[in-house]
Design brief:
single chain; 368 residues; alpha/beta; FAD/NAD(P)-binding domain; D-Amino Acid Oxidase, Chain A, domain 2; 8-stranded mixed β-sheet; 4-stranded mixed β-sheet; 29% helix; 26% strand; binds flavin-adenine dinucleotide
């Protein structure tokens, strides 16, 4: 841990910052980095440590082409386009733009694919519909049950652990401070500044960015702000490293650079319960073998689960909070895909007073 970072032991009783970011996941770290890069005085507060929340139990596809509505897919594309430029600013995060495949199994999938191609094409998102020979040529190990696929060159993936660490290190280099293992217990709103009460200290900040993931609703209540976000569990399987089986990032499955397969499709309403279950592991195995029959001979080495940050309408919540000057929120699923853009847009909003792209459809006011 760098000297700039405030650790539990030495957290001063009273702290001040221009902007306090609550939550040190991928979203909070990206915003902290982008703000600090613009010379802002930033303090990140987390009840635990940077990868303790959803950001530490994820798949980290940088995924664009099957998202709906098309405007959300476009937002994801704009973010994916920022990834190559990040390398220069925060270092290598093992971002790979592999291209993404989403298999088609029947005529219903095919019709959906045609609609997707049309709606997304209008937004400049390139989607090709491949027939079974073309898919097999690209991914010879896919099942014969796959009759086609949609393909987009914009999809890819990133190493989630490296990305969060790189954002944090870059934020620290630009002068950001971190107060970890320090839960926020209450927030008071004043005329000129907020007072954030934490287990270790009292923090005065002109701006607050709520980047608390599945805990956003809880933190929102401290400020009488209704933030409709719930956890949705996903269980992921990891195999032993094997010979190359897949080249492209697929919806639900990909092979990492060291040969492990990462597989996960489940979406469960399980509250804050992060356990894995035998039932879902078995269902996931069945599904995986439907896609890639050769997985039958591959050993599973572990499984883990994570809690997706799911806003009520499943679209990101981004921007300032009406009626609460200085308060901002960033809560979303797909935080890995979106983090470069979210960091940029939130920083523009806080520093310049307006976002660099329109975010009206993502503002929290849509729920009220
Ligand atoms: C199974 C699964 C697969 C996924 N796959 C993908 C994918 O392929 N691509 C993609 O882009 N996204 C994916 N996601 C989504 C992505 O992981 C999340 O959108 C992202 O991690 C959310 O980051 P966050 O920073 O908002 O939340 P978090 O990482 O949860 O960070 C929130 C932080 O807030 C802190 N906090 C909470 N309450 C307090 C408090 N009172 N005081 C101080 N700190 C507090 C927590 O400790 C935590 O560190 C997936 C998620 C899951 C679960």
């Amino acid at each position: 841990m760098s000297n700039h970072s405030i650790m539990v032991e030495d957290t001063p009783k009273n702290l001040e910052a221009e902007t306090a970011v609550i939550g040190a996941g991928v979203v909070g770290n990206s915003i902290a980095f982008h703000l600090a890069e613009r010379g802002q005085d930033v303090l990140v507060v987390d009840k635990n440590y940077p990868l303790s929340g959803t950001s530490g139990s994820t798949q980290a596809w940088v995924w664009v082409h099957t998202k709906t509505p098309a405007s959300y897919s476009e937002l994801s594309m704009l973010s994916a386009m920022l990834y190559p430029g990040l390398k220069r600013r925060i270092g290598d995060v093992e971002y790979l733009r592999t291209g993404g495949l989403s298999p088609i199994f029947d005529s219903v999938d095919l019709e959906r694919a045609k609609r997707l191609q049309e709606s997304h094409g209008k937004r400049g998102i390139e989607i090709r519909i491949l027939n079974s020979d073309e898919v097999r040529h690209m991914e010879p190990n896919l099942s014969r049950k796959v009759i086609g696929a949609t393909f987009s060159p914009i999809d890819g993936n990133v190493n989630p652990l490296r990305l969060v660490d790189a954002y944090r290190r870059a934020a620290l280099r630009h002068g950001a401070r971190y107060s970890l293992y320090n839960p926020v217990t209450d927030i008071k709103e004043g005329n000129e500044a907020f007072t954030i009460l934490t287990q270790k200290s009292t923090i005065r900040a002109k701006h607050i960015v709520l980047a608390a993931g599945i805990w956003s609703e809880h933190i929102g209540k401290m400020l009488n702000v209704n933030i409709p976000v719930r956890p949705v569990r996903g269980q992921i399987l990891v195999t032993e490293p094997v010979q190359p089986l897949l080249k492209y990032t697929m919806s639900g499955m990909r092979q990492t650079q060291n040969g492990e397969m990462l597989i996960g499709y489940s979406k469960e309403e399980a509250g804050f319960d992060r356990r894995t279950t035998l039932k879902v592991i078995q269902q996931t195995v069945q599904m995986a073998m439907q896609y890639v029959p050769k997985l039958r001979n591959v050993k599973l080495v572990r499984s883990f689960s994570g809690l997706r940050v799911m806003p009520k309408d499943e679209l990101p919540i981004l921007g300032d909070v009406p009626g609460h000057p200085g308060l901002y929120i960033a809560a979303m699923h797909s935080g890995y895909t979106l983090s470069p853009l979210v960091g940029t847009v939130m920083t523009d909003l806080i520093v310049d007073g307006e976002p660099s792209i329109p975010i009206d459809e993502y503002r929290i006011g849509r729920f009220w």
